Amino acid sequence: MESPLISLKTYLEKGKPFRIPYYQRGYVWGKSRDSQKNSVQFLMESIVNCFKNNTDLFLQGVTVSESTTEIELIDGQQRTTAFYLLLQYLGFQGDFTIDYPIRIQSQHFLDSLKIMSTDEILNNCLENTEEQYQDIYYFKKSMRIIHENLKDEDKETLIKFLINDEKVKFLYINIQKERATTIFKMMNGNKAEMKAEEVIKAEMLRLVSNRGINEFGVDPKALEALRWNENLTRSKYAREWDKWLYWWNKEDVKKFYHTSNVMGLLVETFFYSTPTKLVFNYENFRDNFLRGGDNTLLTKEAFYKLRQLQKKFEDVFNSFDELDAEKRLHNKVGAIQTLFSSDDRKKFIQSYFAKENSTDIDEFLKLVYLGLNFSQIENVFKKTDTSTADLIQIKKDELLSVIENDNLYPEHKNQAFIQLLRLNVEEDNKLGRKFDFSIWNEKSLEHIYPKSKVYRMEDGILKNGANKEISHSDINDTFLNQEDFAGIGSEHCIGNLVLLYGNENSSFGAKDFNDKKAYYFDFTPTKPFRSRHLLHTISVFAQEKWKAKDIQINKKKMITEIKTYYGIL
Q1: Which residues contact 206 (CB under 8 A, 6 or more apart)?
Q2: CA torsion angle for 35, 36, 37, 38 (degrees, to 10)?
Q3: CA 124 – CA 489 distance, rounded (Å)
Q4: Residue 526: per-residue pLDDT
Q5: How far apart are CA 447 and CA 113, in angstroms?
Q6: Rounded CA gap, 203 and 194, in Å?
Q7: Is 6 helix (H, G, I), strand (E, B) or coil?
Q8: Per-residue confidence (pLDDT) for residue 157, from 0 to 100
Q9: Cβ(559)–Cβ(403) under 8 Å?
Q10: How many CA atoms lie within 13 A of 140 on its CB side?
Q11: How far apart are CA 67 and CA 176, in angstroms?
Q12: Which residues contact 258 (CB under 8 A, 6 or more apart)?
């Protein structure tokens, strides 16, 4: 019996292209994994260590389906591709071909390396954060890691070590082609690497490539045309899916939609677009959307609907600079997702993106700002529950009472946060500008006139607005007497509060208004200040002065604005 342990030399001497099948995910080696070394770094360090000590390097095995013409990689795609990149960098002239049938751009990139010098390869692999294709991004990143680790090594000697000396060894497991996809799913499932959406993609690509064409009695030219068309369709689907994946992997997209499960949100939202009590998983998706008398037809229909849904997600994300203010959806949908709980956020996504409805997004958002949850808002729009009108009135009365409260800061911070967020978002809406909702997880309320510099006499004890005892000698002309408010407003009322990033609140400390204003509008590079994007906050600090009367005026202005926004008479 032939030993399953082979060397890299024997692997390459098989003289067949290594085919990456449709069900495989793209190349991701080189991807950072928190604080750990990525796979390419680990491989390079292992190679260098074994090379310097002239010891064998044993790698994890590969599982393949080998035919007379090719080797289909079932498990080992990432390692094989990494070695391909490594050997091209070293200038290896032997026969080594990667066949990427469903990723044309990836194929072109890998092929192009064979005719380049090392310097040309490095110039072609400079970092580009706007790289359109995920595979190529990580091909290039891997090449940079290879260069960083091997730039001081002699390339010819290293090639000899890796191949001719047969120092690189691994298990080679060859299985029947009929079992390939089953084994792949089992292996990846056991490693918990394959997500439902990844297996769904693999199945869709399989179905559009498997119409069950009867080759007998079919004109060879017609048969070739059919197969050619299938390959084009499969490649088109794979490229489009990878394009979606690249978009969902963008940090600003993930933050906006509150998801780290890229693509999962798209596919799961599509799954729940039709009423079902089923749990989202591969089997249920397959049985509901991919099975039927003509699997290919169903697959194309499902892919078409996924494309429509993806476009809506992209359109909403990009809708912020429209001439028509009603079409500026980015900030409106962003505010809803920011204020909703995770459960309500999911319900909103499924309702707004996946189902055909005529939701008035402005009215919906208005109720979110008022504090209603998704179910309550849904009942408002359905108009089937007469109690919702009473609920809305109660919420309006509560909000008005809170905003009028002169002790708002210590007693009702959450309502102040929400309304100040709204005012800042609306200022960005007027300019057609994206609002940065990251502030919600870092938010802080800042007293415009510092509470530590407002004093009062309480039971014969002199205290400041922070409720700390002070002496008369502490008071100077930067202090404000609480009696100046004459019972209308205070340092803790809505008229003296603005929204800031929490880690920047301390930058203001107990500074008086003019010092805060000077700091706020100091645009020198040495004083970066994220809160400057908050336009409503800017408008307050743009005031010429800030005393008790100004706080009272601002409070009345805020109350009037809220009454107008909610139609409170």
Answers
A1: 22, 23, 181
A2: -100
A3: 64
A4: 67
A5: 60
A6: 13
A7: strand
A8: 94
A9: yes
A10: 19
A11: 9
A12: 337, 342, 345
CA distances from 24 to 313, 431, 462 (A): 26, 45, 73
DSSP tag of 424: H
Residue type, 509: G
Strands 443-447, 62-66: pairing is unpaired
Q: How far apart are CA 553 and CA 549, in angstroms?
A: 6
Do residues 496 and 557 make contact, with C-beta atoms less than 8 angstroms apart? no
Distance (Å, whole) CA 502 – CA 443: 5
pLDDT at 190: 46
Q: Which residues pair with 446 in a beta bridge?
A: 498
Collapsed DSSP state (helix, strand, coil) of residue 19 = strand
Amino acid at 199: V
CA distance 298 to 305: 11
| pLDDT at site 235 | 76
What confidence score (pLDDT) does residue 189 get?
Answer: 52
Beta-ladder partners of 169: 7, 58
Q: How far is CA 543 from the centre of its chain?
A: 38
What is the pTM (predicted TM-score) of this model?
0.67
464 φ, ψ (degrees, to nearest 5) = -100, 180
pLDDT of amino acid 524? 74
Q: In sequence order, what are the residues at sequence separation of 6 or more whose Cβ sits closer than 8 angstroms to the Cβ of residue 357?
A: 351
Fill in the amino acid letter for 378.
E
Give the helix, strand, coil percentages of the chain, each rounded to 5: 60, 10, 35
From the number of C-beta atoms within 10 Å of its C-beta (0-12, 13-18, 19+), residue 435 rates as: buried
In order of 46, 214, 228, 294, the CA distances from 218 in angstroms are: 54, 7, 15, 20
Q: What is the DSSP string of 331-373?
A: HHHHHHHHHS-HHHHHHHHIIIIIS-----HHHHHHHHHHT--
Residues of the chain with pLDDT under 70: 1-3, 23, 32-36, 177-195, 209-231, 293, 322, 325-326, 356-357, 505-510, 525-527
- Report which of 387, 368, 369 is spatially closest to residue 379, judged by C-alpha positions: 387
Q: Which two tokens stand for residue 232?
A: 């084009």
Long-range contacts of residues 310-317, Cβ cutoff 8 Å, at least 24 apart: 310/244, 310/247, 310/266, 312/353, 313/257, 313/266, 313/353, 314/247, 316/353, 317/253, 317/256, 317/257
Phi-psi region of 365 (alpha: psi -120 to 50; beta: other; left: phi over 0): alpha
**H/E element holding 267?**
helix 264-271
Question: Which pLDDT value is given to residue 81?
Answer: 94
Q: What confidence tens digit (pLDDT) does each residue in 77-124 have?
A: 899 999 999 999 999 999 999 998 777 888 999 999 999 999 999 999
What does R_g of the chain's alpha carbons equal in angstroms? 32
* First vs last C-alpha separation in the chain: 90
